[in-house]
Design goal:
two-stranded antiparallel sheet, 11 helices, mainly alpha, MetI-like fold, 2 strands
């Protein structure tokens, strides 16, 4: 049995609590943020309050991170499993492809994919993808390589155990070993990898949105920061920018705590 560390619960509670509160306040009860914000209105968006734009956009950033992290983790797991099942030259070439993708600068590639995708959408050929879907697909296309490499290495480690050799000696196929013996041991690692992709996806989306390339509506934290940093030229402008930065830091901190704790949690006898 494995005991879930306190850090994991702290991280998951932070993520879940912030996400649920932001969704409720930003979408279900928007008047709460619009009418009772102690930080006042945003000078760059005079008709909106700072709370409405910053805290209300948190759930957008979290939703993008969750969707992109899940999709990239799923693609990476599929690629690693297929490569491991095939073995031989195919596995080596697939992992070389993953290494090549892993070496690409994520943010720059996401920017290029966003610009290309937006051009297709404007031309009426966007396959029905809105700004949210386009961002998720872009992040997944550049983020699958890391999980694929981690899953392949994890499978290689698990297959070196003696009971796997015994199972194969008894005639078990690669597919049987993967489904019956390896997958149960791999599931906690899959969750840890997914959570590790979450902060990377959130930061990548925030960076791309900050530079004004993405068209997220409602505004994510990154896009809000990109459109409101000009408030610093006004007196008291820090009250506009600092809350959004703090929320972004809390999101990344929660995901990092949860992923690191789940990846390193000790076994209990």
């Amino acid at each position: 049995m494995r005991r879930v560390p306190v850090q994991a619960w702290v991280g998951l509670t932070l993520l879940g609590g912030l996400g649920v509160l932001s969704l409720l306040a930003g979408r279900v009860f928007p008047h709460v943020l619009a009418g009772t914000c102690p930080l006042g209105n945003d000078p760059t968006h005079p008709d909106r309050t700072v709370c409405e734009l910053a805290f209300g956009g948190l759930w957008i950033s979290l939703a993008i991170g969750l969707a992109a992290g899940a999709l990239s983790t799923g693609i990476g797991l599929f690629v690693a499993a297929v490569a491991r099942l095939a073995g031989g030259n195919l596995e080596r070439w697939v992992m070389r492809l993953a290494d090549a993708f892993f070496a690409l600068p994520d943010v720059l590639v996401v920017m290029v994919l966003q610009l290309a995708g937006q051009s297709l959408v404007d031309a009426g050929s966007g396959a029905g993808l809105g700004p949210f879907g386009l961002m998720v697909v872009s992040l997944a296309l550049v983020g699958w390589a890391g999980p694929a490499r981690m899953f392949r290495n994890r499978l290689d480690t698990l297959e070196s155990q003696e009971f796997i050799a015994a199972s194969r000696a008894l005639g078990a196929t690669r597919a049987h070993v993967l489904r019956v013996h390896l997958w149960p041991a791999l599931r906690p690692f899959v969750l840890a990898v997914f959570l590790s992709r979450l902060p990377a996806a959130i930061l990548a989306e925030s960076t791309v949105s900050f530079f004004g390339i993405a068209r997220m509506e409602p505004m994510s934290l990154g896009r809000y920061l990109g459109t409101s940093y000009a408030a610093l030229i006004y007196e008291g402008g820090s009250r506009v920018v600092i809350p959004a930065w703090l929320l972004l830091v809390l999101l990344v901190l929660g995901a990092s705590l949860a992923s690191q704790a789940l990846a390193t949690r000790p076994r209990r006898a």
